Amino acid sequence: MRSPKDFFAPLALGAPAPLREIPFRPSRMIHFFDPSNERMRTKVPDIAPTVDVLLGNLEDAVSADSKDAARAGLIEVGKAWERGHTQLWTRVNSLDSPWFLDDVWALCHEIGDKLDVIMVPKVEGPEDIHYVDRLLAQLEARVGIEQPLLVHAILETARGVANVESICLASPRMQGLSLGPADLAADRRMKTTRVGGGHPGYLVRTDPVPEGDGDAGDDARTAFQQDLWHYTLARMVDACGTAGILPYYGPFGDIADPVGCEDQFRNAYLLGCVGAWSLHPSQIAIAKRVFSPEPAEVAWAHRVVTEMGDGTGAVMIDGKMQDDATVKQCRVVLQLARDLSAADPELAAAYGLETA
Ligand code: GLV
Ligand code: MG
After folding, report:
1. Which of ligand 1's atoms lies nearest the C-alpha of 251?
2. Ligand 1 center–CA 155 separation, angstroms
3. How far apart are CA 43 and CA 308, in angstroms?
């Protein structure tokens, strides 16, 4: 038994009080870089201002013999980091790896005041978050970190999906969730070898035409490709909404297919996600475009909110019925436009909004 009042009490003496609300900060793209790679480290000052989140990756895609170099490289980047609009995140190694403890220990001691969010991979249940929560509180207290470190979980095991609501609700540190389609596909024994995106074999087809009805054979039957990730993403969005935290599409691995990437990102955006990972600089612009509402949509939302006055009742605008619910939908779009514009004068101008 635990009193709900204790949910917001620090988990270690001297640790900062947990946040009661997850602040909305633009995070349309979480741009991954490998801090063990010196060439990538030298590019950080150029790339950082072009992204909402820069993430030093210590987990998969960093080979076992580069783990120490990646951790040291991220510490070097973090020490030179000036906090501003761009957030600095990390993806640490998984809880069952030999590197997790060293990752968290070293990062908290060396750059705990520079990191905004720690992404934890392969989270399977609330017990994983409880462990990380207490450990971070102890380290915050030990090091004197004043702002609570937030935690982002990757949903990439079947058990994680089954426990998604309790993962989101496990701690006030929970900032958000990303879909991890590669690990999730493997864990579920799905038969796709792609990193995210669709699959040409995942189809629904129209019925056969009965014989004698001018049968043109199976060629006349239209097939539509379905979205392999719809179910998981929709569950994630609801779980995050319930907990007041943010959902993200994860990686899209086919860098050579910007159109497929844009479609997948847009599906996620329309379903409620706030961003996606960019694994290559070419995906930064895609994420920025997709996860910022279109100016025409913002103008429409503004018109509906204005014409609906106090937000109750019903009016017709251009033949479309508007009521209390559509005003709420429009406010979601407007609020996102305002939040994104606050750090982006170009976007503010496109929306016709004032920047502070
Ligand atoms: C990401 O980590 C994935 O497994 O897709
Ligand atoms: Mg993974």
Report:
1. 5
2. 8
3. 49
Q: How far is the CA of 182 from the centre of ligand 2 (A)?
A: 6
Which residues, 6 or more positions from 259, have their beta carbon under 8 angstroms from its beta carbon? none
Residue 269 near residue 7 (C-beta atoms within 8 A): no
pLDDT-based confidence at 343, cuts 50/70/90?
confident
Provide the 10 A C-beta neighbour count for residue 327.
19
CA distance 175 to 153: 8
Judged by DSSP in three states, 72 sits in helix
In this structure, what token pair is assigned to residue 203? 């189809």
Q: Give the pLDDT confidence score for residue 185 in this predicted structure.
A: 98
The predicted model gives 131-156 an average pLDDT of 98
d(CA 75, CA 81): 10
- pLDDT value at residue 217: 79
49 burial via Cβ count (<10 Å: 0-12, 13-18, 19+) = exposed
- CATH assignment, 4-291: 3.20.20.60
214 pLDDT band, cuts 50/70/90, is low
Which residue ranges have their beta carbon within 6 Å of ligand 1? 60, 121, 154, 156, 180-183, 195, 250-251
3-state secondary structure of 251: coil
Sign of the Cα pseudo-torsion (324, 326, 327, 332, in order): positive
Q: At what angle do helices 282-290 and 258-271 cross, to 10 degrees?
A: 30
Locate 260 and state its tokens: 């497929």
Residues in the chain: 356
The C-alpha atoms of residue 162 and residue 157 are separated, in whole angstroms, by 9
Domain ranges of the chain: 4-291, 297-351
Angle CA 215–224–191, to nearest 5: 120
Least confident of 133-142, 212-221, 262-271: 212-221
Please tell me the distance between residue 182's alpha carbon and the centre of ligand 1 in angstroms: 5
With beta carbons less than 8 A apart as the criterion, state whether 11 and 33 touch: no
